[in-house]
Amino acid sequence: MILRLEFLRLVRSRRPLMALLALLLFLALMLVGFWSYAQSRTHGAVQFEYTYENRSYFNGLTFALYAFFFGFVLLLPIFAAIEGGAQIAGDAGSGTLGLLLVRPISKTRLFFTKLAVAWGWSTLLTALFLGAALLLGLFAVGWGELRLYPGVLQSSDRPQLLSRATALRRFLLAWPAASLALLAPLALSFWISTWTRSAVNAVGTAVALYLVAHVIVEVHFFEALKPWLFTSHTTAWRALFRETIDWREIAGHEVALLGHAALFLALAFRRFRRREEA
Amino acid sequence: MNRSARVVELLLWLIAAIALLAAPRLAPTASEAALDAPPAKSRARGEWRVVTWNVGGSANGTAHPLADSDLEAVAKTLRELRPDLVLLQEFRYGTQWDALRARFEVGAGYVQSAADDVAIVAVRGALADGRSSGLFAQARWQVDGHEFAVGALHAAAWSARERRREIGGALDRTLQMTARAHLFGGDLNLDVDQRGDLFSNDPQRDAEVYNYVAERLLDAGAGRGPTAEPDRRLDYLFVSREFEVRAAGPWKGRRSGTMDHDPLVVDLRLR
Fold it and tell me: Hey, is the C-beta of A116 within 8 angstroms of any chain B C-beta?
């Protein structure tokens, strides 16, 4: 009952619609970027596919992977943080949380229902984004084999070649791996959300903390801090796009993400069950 | 109700603790493996050791070629490594070759030098058809009945655009040489191991030129860690697929004075 109610409240909030529209706009901009890159580099002689490394490098699969990577790093954690902020701080600010707790429902059940709805939506959003990127790549350019080089994605230290069928299977595997990675920023936003009654403050703080952690991991100067930040592990799913998958390495990153998520959730739950609702 | 909530919270703490403790054991972060111990002195027949080393340094923010005071240290390292082929950068061939040869026996060795900076030294075997241009030298290395094409480059330090032109051109010229197999290396001054963010004026261009080489030849030192200060992988040896890389990595702790690169040591044999 409470699960259904939370789900309906999520749909009616229009947050899912806004997130989907933002992601589609992002994909459209990525597509324009890919086309204009090839146009400008070859003075219009070659469209889309050209790179210095390989004149037929980019195709629908490479586009999908690049788009998913940048969307995953820059946008999906923000939407996850929005859910965390809205689910607890938003409800607390509007007084809905207090009304919900008047019903015969435990704080534990309410907390984990909200978490399930938020993570479920994040997982679905990840699937929709990945699917849209693949479909757009297919219709705009066409799929082919997936060639990857060291560089922007930092997914491999040597060139990789995956057949189309293998690459599509890897995209399928990337979905749960990436979804689990979103649980950590979501749990972080849940924790922050338990300390405020303003969704804006909760989301703003969670997004700022995520961006700081992300930047620290990306900048080489902060090497010593990397083991302590969950953002060191969030893009571990890229390793699924190697010719030979190191499952042990991926498992290590996913377990670390689970550990960070559990830590934030423990902190969030501790605060949530102790605080008084108006 | 409070009790069950406490149990749930405890469970979360437990999961967090177990997962955070277990994760580093599953995915160790130190995957880069430099040659901490001296590389093996003995090699099987049909194996060759190639060393590329920028022997220059920097003092007070200014780069300089190999200091005469560091010649003995370089020779000592080479004596211990017993390489078959050496690619040197920032080496003043005009004034330092005789001094180095006096300290490090190169047998019937032959050197091809470019612009008093880059040198290809065949410690065993001989070099033929040597040519040089700018900071690029190329030659055929004839050893143990085989002939290999060798290209050595010291690429531009600051401009990614210059690097791209130099590396692309040097690689093409190396691959144009007909030979049993190809070797291309030196100080390429690009770093694609997530360390280009602070040092390159165009990391994307650097990634592209690295990929241009890596698609054609195997990067023997990939995943073996940084070779230069501060914590950058700038020195490379690329080899054609005819070679099998038996061991590779920078040998740490061999710098002297103000030197700022480690020697990259690669043991090869034909497949």
Answer: no
Q: In Å, what is the CA distance from A252 to each residue of A173, B22, B40?
A: 16, 8, 33
Q: Could you tell me the two tokens for B147?
A: 């002939």
The pTM for the full model equals 0.74
Whether A250 has a pLDDT exceeding 70, the answer reads yes
Of B24, B207, B218, the CB nearest to A150: B207
Check B16 against A248: CB less than 8 A apart: no
Q: Is A95 on the interface with B (CB under 8 A)?
A: no
Strand B181-187, strand B146-154: pairing: parallel
Q: How far is B8 from B134, CA to CA, in rounded Å?
A: 69
- From chain A, the residues in CB contact with B211 under 8 A are 52-54, 149-151, 159
Does pLDDT of B31 surpass 50?
Answer: no
Would you call A157 and B223 a contact, using CB atoms and an 8 Å cutoff? yes
Report yes or no: A241 and A160 within 8 Å, Cβ to Cβ: yes
Which residue would you say has higher pLDDT here, A204 or A93? A204
Which ipTM value was assigned to this complex?
A: 0.82
Query: Which 3 state secondary structure label does DSSP give B235?
Result: strand
Question: pLDDT tens-digit profile of A148-185?
Answer: 877 667 667 677 889 999 999 999 999 999 999 999 99
Q: Tell whether B208 lies on the interface with A, counting CB pairs under 8 A.
A: yes
Measure CB to CB from residue B19 to each of A154, A218, A256 and give the nearest one: A256
Q: Centre a 10 Å sphere on the Cβ of residue A187 and count the other Cβ atoms it contains.
A: 30
Percent residues over pLDDT 70 in chain A: 90
The reported pLDDT for the residue numbered B86 is 95
Tokens found for residue A188: 């972080």
3-class secondary structure, A211? helix
Widest distance between CA atoms in chain B? 86
What is the separation, in whole angstroms, between the first and last Cα of chain B? 69
CB pairs under 8 A between A and B: 125
How many other C-beta atoms are found inside a 10 Å radius of the C-beta of residue A44? 9
Distance from the A97 Cα atom to the nearest Cα atom in chain B, whole angstroms? 18
- Tell me the percentage of chain B whose pLDDT exceeds 90: 54
Beta strand segments in chain B, E:
47-54, 57-59, 62-64, 85-89, 110-114, 118-122, 126-133, 136-143, 146-154, 181-187, 218-219, 235-239, 243-250, 264-270
A194: nearest Cα among A269, A99, A110: A269
pLDDT of residue A157: 67
